[in-house]
Amino acid sequence: MPSRKYADGEVVMGRWPGSVLYYEVQVTSYDDVAHLYTVKYKDGTELALKESDIRSQSSFKQRKSQSSSSSPSRRSTSRSRSRSPGRPGRGRRRSSSQSREHKDDKKKTIQETSLALPAVLVLFKPSENNTKRYNGEPENTEKNDTSCTILEQKLKPDLEVKHFEQYSLRSRKDEKKKEEIYSEKKIFTTVKTVEKAPSKTKELEFGGRIGTFMMIFLLPATVFYLLLMCKQDDPSLLNFPALPALESLWETRVFGIFLLWFFLQALFYLLPIGKVVEGLPLSSGKKLQYRINGFYAFIFTAAAIGILLYLQFELHYLYDHFMQFAVSAAAFSLALSIYLYVRSLKAPEEELAPGGNSGYFIYDFFTGHELNPRIGSFDLKYFCELRPGLIGWVVINLAMLLAEMKIHNLSMPSLSMILVNSFQLLYVVDALWNEEAVLTTMDITHDGFGFMLAFGDLVWVPFVYSLQAFYLVGHPTVISWPVAAAITIVNCIGYYIFRSANSQKNAFRRNPADPKLANLKFIPTATGKGLLVTGWWGFVRHPNYLGDIIMALAWSLPCGFNHILPYFYVIYFICLLVHREARDEHHCKQKYGLAWERYCQRVPYRIFPYIY
């Protein structure tokens, strides 16, 4: 293995990807596997560069002195570029032999100039003002037009032009102007497509190896504890439930029903209905295709459940064997996680997850080693994200509603149960209707598919998110119509914030040039994307999280205030979103550099206005 040439913390000159410009950078780390240096530019942007794209400052200045001390004949040849290269100066004629000698000198000069070019480019070291242009930002950091997008579209066909390889017939002034435009274009467009090559994960989350090891046991234990608590007559925190016999937790028939449910949803996923869209570019520049048919799967599932009810199938069987279903789902998610990790060991380097490539077995097993594991065109992570668990959540809620009616001999469900089912049904239908938006979430773009997402999608979502409905079966709560109306208003406010904020963000991502978005202001970034500073995204940095938390509160309020157990979801959700916001903050600061700092100054509150 070749030894590294530059040490961590060393200040060197790094070439900007896709251009001929060199800037002063600081080496932050080195990947022994990919043989890439991670360097940090002055504006905070971090990129991975090859050793051939990095030069020491001393050799850089030495080449500069060599190029400046060229012979008088070279300088005169260089100055002659302002005239047509085949035409002699005024009052002078050249013979054919002189012309050939002149061409030979010219070729030699071009070669020497290309060698001395890195030294000359040290003169372009960005200052305070031109750093903004280097970062893809105009001097005015807030924009409400689409000039950047239009400029990118105009200049896109020129990306294949080769610089300094052919002689130009333009004047020196025109040539200089063309080079400046090309340089700005390359900086603007190249950063948009070039991603950091996958490297070892150095910053471990979730408490590192020890934290992830404990969470592999803590998450299933939390689910089983909550379900056992709901079964008790007094579900207070101090009244710890008795542990059931191990043989009572497993039933082969229940596991078979769970497998049938999982593969039924997989069948709906494979149906050739719904549009096919492309996801965000991967580190290799490739875009994966996804079929958007989650809402159709929900309709087919509803039809299947309706047929079962018509045939007098006892759906409250789910309530009677709820713990066994949870154990079956947990066992399946563990087996799926083992399979995902084993297959990820053979995955190419560019297909590994940015956050799950630490080299530590437990950490990578938990966070997910492979980013987008697929069996043919079947995307395992994308399928589990919305199908078995999210649609299963609605089916479980319906089963709890029917169980309440049967156990308490009711002709219709209680008002509390109706509110919980209605609010959560709206949330699931909204997610499936706007399925395409999930392709831009951190779960899809950053996190690998490992135990964390497998257990979360297949166990945590259906069995913990349905906790309020499960609680109401054994602990009925009577609420008045005015209270129900007030709770409904709270849920509607949360949903309006959640949906309008997400719609605003998704519309801006799809087409920033849309005339309907002309009133929105944004801060341009070096990646070519903009950070919204008006609308909901100028109110707080994560307005969708704020709406989510308000809705979570509305789902718990119908359960009354006798016990804190039904409020576990909203407490957990606040902790989850605060942690996710911290992860977003860290990634965005690395990705956007100074632009993110300006955005944080413009929008100081993260989730809760005037509080946090």
Automatic annotation (TrEMBL):
Write out the biased-composition intervals (Basic and acidic residues): 99-110
The chemistry this enzyme catalyses reads: 5alpha-cholest-8,14-dien-3beta-ol + NADPH + H(+) = 5alpha-cholest-8-en-3beta-ol + NADP(+); 4,4-dimethyl-5alpha-cholesta-8,24-dien-3beta-ol + NADP(+) = 4,4-dimethyl-5alpha-cholesta-8,14,24-trien-3beta-ol + NADPH + H(+); 4,4-dimethyl-8,14-cholestadien-3beta-ol + NADPH + H(+) = 4,4-dimethyl-5alpha-cholest-8-en-3beta-ol + NADP(+)
Q: Which residues form the Tudor domain?
A: 4-62
Q: Which PROSITE patterns match?
A: STEROL_REDUCT_1 (PS01017), STEROL_REDUCT_2 (PS01018)
Query: Among the entry's GO cellular component annotations, what is one?
Result: nuclear inner membrane
- Reported EC number(s) for this entry are 1.3.1.70
Domain of life, source organism? Eukaryota
Tell me a GO biological process for this protein.
cholesterol biosynthetic process
Instruction: Please note every region of biased composition (Basic residues).
Output: 76-95
Enzyme class of the recorded protein, top EC level: oxidoreductase
Q: Could you tell me the membrane topology recorded for this protein?
A: Multi-pass membrane protein
| Subcellular location as annotated | Cytoplasm; Endoplasmic reticulum membrane; Nucleus inner membrane
Residue intervals passing through the bilayer: 206-228, 254-273, 294-313, 325-342, 453-473, 479-498, 519-540, 560-579
Pathway this chain belongs to:
Steroid biosynthesis; cholesterol biosynthesis
Could you list this entry's UniProt keywords, alphabetically sorted: Cholesterol biosynthesis, Cholesterol metabolism, Cytoplasm, DNA-binding, Endoplasmic reticulum, Lipid biosynthesis, Lipid metabolism, Membrane, Nucleus, Oxidoreductase, Phosphoprotein, Receptor, Steroid biosynthesis, Steroid metabolism, Sterol biosynthesis, Sterol metabolism, Transmembrane, Transmembrane helix
Q: Can you name the source organism?
A: Tachuris rubrigastra
> Per the record, where are the segments of Low complexity compositional bias?
55-75
Q: Cite the GO molecular-function annotations of the record.
A: Delta14-sterol reductase activity; DNA binding
Can you say what this protein is called?
Answer: Delta(14)-sterol reductase LBR
Keyword Amino-acid biosynthesis attributed: no
- Alphabetized Gene3D superfamilies for the sequence: 1.20.120.1630, 2.30.30.140
The record's comment on protein family reads: Belongs to the ERG4/ERG24 family.
The UniProt annotation puts the region (Disordered) at 53-111
